[in-house]
Design brief:
The protein is an alpha+beta fold. The chain has four domains: 101 residues, Beta Barrel (conserved putative lor/sdh protein from methanococcus maripaludis s2 fold), CATH 2.40.420.20; 82 residues, Elongation Factor Tu (Ef-tu), domain 3 (Beta Barrel); 58 residues, RNA polymerase II/Efflux pump adaptor protein, barrel-sandwich hybrid domain (OB fold (Dihydrolipoamide Acetyltransferase, E2P), Beta Barrel), CATH 2.40.50; 74 residues, Orthogonal Bundle (Helix Hairpins). It is 22% helix and 35% strand. The longest helix has 36 residues. The C terminus is likely disordered.
Length: 385
């Protein structure tokens, strides 16, 4: 019996030694959590802009020719009716003289046809000629009158052409650019002088596509003048219908309040009021809580009853400082993991991280580098980040 017992004991010991060890239990990770709350949207977008005149015209001659004189200079103030540049008018004067000669010839022909018609009318009254002959003379008179009218119209055109040899300012304003010099031959309509008309001023700034939805026409903006370190206000007046092909941004024009004397071309900073979000209650999370799940953005939500984490897809609206504004997917009061999100898996058990208590007199090296937010923080805790 002793031998049998010893043999059985040896077999059991051998089997136990050869069996596979049970896998160790998954470690319970300590995670930092924050309580989701709502807070006021605080961020303000600021764009660099430039002050420009609302009306800026490129003036050019209505006829072609050689520039013989230019009176306008960049930065010069001009008044409506002031001569800015002149073309060589010799050819246009000769054409006008030729038109006057044509008028004189047509008038002579008309007078001759009129005298013939009167004579033939008297002869018709005395029955010396037929009615057909009188009709021919009347037709000749009408043709001569038409030729005279045509010659006069041609003379008016040539006189206008001669007057177009002088480039005249049609509005009062400031010359912002000169694009042609004396001696240069320019075509009709080619820009010679650029004038910023007196009157309202606009601030033009570029907005990226992802920020355009937060700007609407009529929205108030704050304008900060960089050189003078002062602020004024305005309103969004116009938003470009298409983006710039090089920068892929949209040009936005904001009208400056009347009475503000902003220098043309000066640099300003524009801060839209963000009517869609400003002052509204939003849910915000730190960027450390976000992770990518395929093409979606997700966070880990802690189930405090089972102390497990589950993935929750969210929709991010925009940024607010170092936080993100959540458009959908979360409700206030939820517990969200704020650190270590990339080492967790769905359904994993976790514990809430508790900072170590430093004993009195401990060296600074033993102090933890950060403190944990309590899990039961008030609803405004997340908004304060």
């Amino acid at each position: 019996m002793k031998r049998t017992a010893l043999a059985l004991l040896g077999v059991v010991t051998f089997l136990v030694a050869c069996s596979r060890a049970a896998p160790p239990a998954d470690p319970v990770r300590a995670v930092k959590v924050i309580t989701v709350g709502s807070g006021a949207y605080q961020s303000r977008l600021e764009f660099a802009g430039e002050v420009k005149a609302r009306v800026e015209s490129r003036l050019g001659f209505r006829v072609g020719g050689k520039i013989i004189r230019r009176q306008a200079e960049a930065g010069q103030r001009v008044k409506a009716g002031q001569v800015l540049a002149e073309l060589d008018p010799q050819d246009y004067r000769l054409a006008a003289d030729a038109a006057r000669a044509q008028v004189a010839a047509a008038q002579t022909s008309r007078d001759l046809a009129s005298a013939d018609f009167r004579r033939y009318q008297e002869l018709k009254n005395q029955n010396f000629i037929s009615g057909a002959e009188l009709d021919r003379r009347e037709t000749t008179l009408k043709s001569a009158e038409a030729q005279l009218q045509q010659a006069r119209s041609q003379l008016a055109v040539q006189a206008n052409q001669a007057s177009y040899a002088s480039l005249v300012a049609d509005v009062s304003g400031v010359v912002t650019a000169v694009e042609a010099e004396p001696g240069q031959v320019v075509a009709a309509g080619a820009p010679v002088v650029r004038i910023a008309a007196d009157g309202p001023r606009d601030v033009i700034f570029a907005v990226p596509e992802d920020r355009l939805s937060g700007i609407v026409p009529g929205e108030p903006v704050r304008i900060r003048v960089w050189a003078q370190n002062r602020e004024t206000t305005g309103k969004v007046r116009e938003i470009a219908a298409s983006s710039d092909p090089q920068t892929r941004t949209y040009a936005v024009k904001a009208s400056v309040d009347a009475g503000e004397a902003l220098a043309l071309g000066s640099t300003v900073y524009v801060t839209p009021e963000m009517a869609a979000l400003a002052g509204s209650q939003v849910i915000k999370l730190p960027t450390t809580a976000l992770r990518q799940e395929g093409n979606a953005t997700a966070v880990w939500v802690l189930d405090k009853a089972s102390m497990t984490v589950n993935s929750q897809v969210i929709q991010v609206a925009t940024a607010d400082g170092n936080d993100v504004v959540v458009a959908s997917g979360l409700k206030p009061g939820a517990l969200v993991v704020s650190a270590g999100v990339h080492v967790l898996s769905p359904g994993q058990k976790v514990s809430i991280y508790q900072p170590a208590v430093v004993a009195t007199g401990a060296s600074p090296a033993q102090t933890p580098p950060y403190a944990e937010r309590p899990a039961a923080a008030p609803a405004s805790a997340a908004a304060s980040r």
